[in-house]
Structures are given as structure tokens and as C-alpha cells.
User: Fold this.
Amino acid sequence: MKKGKGPLYYAHLKIADTRANAEKQRKKCQIDCGSSVNCIDVSTLHGIARDIQLRNSNSVLKMFNNTKIRPTGVATLRIESRQWNRESSLVADFEVVPEAPCILISGSTGEKLGLLTFDEEVVNTVSTADGNLTKNDILTIYKDVFTGLGKLPGTYHIDVDENKPAVQHAPRRVAHPLRSELKAKRKQLEDKGIIRKSGPAHSLDLQHCHSQK
Assistant:
């Protein structure tokens, strides 16, 4: 397998129809671990097996640039790989698309052919120098997570049904010992731009209020 320009990997694989004694053709294929399906264009498919029967496809393929392609059908082909004196063969489905620069092999198919390896043990292992993370370690290493409010940039627009009448809940009484604390917290949230007054001032609109120790 050879690496192309940028994070692209290619392999030359033998591909044929699944029928017995079908002629195998060596084709350049791109191995894409981010793809969940195998793809082949109509022209390349006809060069391998012109009279192959396609099955209906219910898929809609989403490209890396967010464009969508509806396949013309699904073809079942046999793939053979020979890597480092190891031979692998399997039968896989291919989504047939109108155009493509080359045959695309999904990550799962590439793994089955031995073109990719996935070390789950390494991926799922997190370790530090001493093997344990203390509270101070977490606060130091991931300090950006604990800084600020976590407020994302931009404005989010929520569509509402204008035909639905607005509802304002009746104000709730707050225990006297908690009023000063709640007013201070409300002012802090207003000063930071998290909340704002939406109309005439009312008593605090809280249904449940308790002190957390």
C-alpha cells in the first residue's frame, strides 16, 4: 500500500465479479478509514463486469464537502489483496456512483483485507507518568476546560410557533433567608450576560429552591 499526497492511501487490488472463473483485474483503490461504504464508478464497474446485475440502493452518500450523491445501485464484487506475502480475499458490496476518481475501499473492508490494523487496546488506554491522575493533575492538564463559562461564540436562533399564546408563570415566594443569596446570583448571571430581564421586574420565579451544602 502506498501513501498519496496528503492523508491519502492507495493499494492495487484484484477485483472481479463473484461468478466462477471471472477475470480478475488489478485496480488502484483508495483506502479511506473514514468511509463506511465501498464505492465504484459506473465506467470502472463496466470494465470489470459489463453485464453485472445491480441491486437497488437505499443509501444517500455524504461527501467530505457535505455534497450528497444518490448511488445508481449496489454491486457485489470479489476483492483480493496480497500484502507482505499475505493473501486475503473477500466478497463485498459496492455502492455504484456516476463518477469517481478511483475505487474507494472503506475502513472496515480495508481492515478485513489486512490493509489497516486497529489496536483497540492502545486506543482505550489512558496513562500518566505515575499511572494515576489526581485532582490537581486534572485541573492543571485540562485547565482550559475549567476556565470561563463554556459559552460558545455566535447566536443561536430558535424558531417558535407565533400562533401559540405566550405563557407567564405566576411568581413564587422565596424563603427570606435565601433571598439575598439568590438576588446576588441573579445579578452575577446578568452581569456576565448569561441571562437578562425580559420585562417588568417581578419577584423571583422559582418553584423549587433549596440550599446546597
Summary: The first strand starts at residue 2 and ends at 3. The radius of gyration is 30 Å. The CA atoms of residues 157 and 163 lie 18 Å apart. Residues 1-5, 201-208 have pLDDT under 50 and may be disordered.
